[in-house]
Amino acid sequence: MERKRQYIGPVDTSTTSPIHRPAPAFIQLETKLSIFETGIKVVDLLAPYRRGGKIGLFGGAGVGKTVLIMELINDIAKAHGGVSVFGGVGERTREGNDLYMETKESGVINEKNIAESKVALVYGQMNEPPGARTRVGLTALTMAEYFRDVNEQDVLLFIDNIFRFVQAGSEVSALSGRMPSAVGYQPTLSTEMGSLQERITSTKEGSITSIQAVYVPAPTTVLSRGLAAKRYLSSTILGLDELSEEDRLTVARARKIERFLSQPFFVAEVFTGSPGKYVGLAETISRFQLILSGELDSLPEQAFYLFSR
What we know:
309 residues; alpha/beta; Rossmann fold; Bovine Mitochondrial F1-ATPase, ATP Synthase Beta Chain, Chain D, domain3; 5-stranded parallel sheet; 13% strand
């Protein structure tokens, strides 16, 4: 804190907010539904985010959860001028440093005028005590509530990783000598998670849209009785030569749609070699309709890969 005080000036502590607080009353809630445009084609077209809703990003380590979060922060700040709050709960220090450097280079964090910055970062890396890691998620949520209730803004709240929040709570429970539940988690899990999630909502002043990464700690094998009943055997899938002309056309359009949904990210320009692109929802739908209607059947599927113009 002393280094930060010397770097950006004195910190105003005249007004504080508790991190443990009740959820907004029912009469304060906003019930009107609207879509939150992200500028990412595959999200806006196939799995749109509801303004004021909660979105989970499920996946194992290294599949791109943090990269997607970094891209969303960049897009929302630049395209909408919106505010984002990032809570790094129990993740690696390297990822937090990468996010800070990326947001600083892109201008989302304005070091010359902190008031013009569009993101607030709260970190509690995995080597911190469990009590500190538990409070990171609540601290980030309290910051988001300030932007919503006081500044009357629409806020994006990112929690990476919500599983680590539960894990930290489990460690605190074990240190407190509480009897664990049947699956090993703390007996107060539903209460702790419920008190966090209920505060993430839309009110008449603004909205908090939460995107939470959910780390899957082990690979999952799914055995489907339904697929077995249909005698679905991957080794016996017929090739394109065995399909009718109509089915071949359907497969060709599906492959073009799959490649069309690829998109160069701003935060991954150094890896893809392509400049990042924000694609509006209207443009995404119109391009998708062109492929589906067959107007672009003459183009090869390679022409749609990372195509965002």
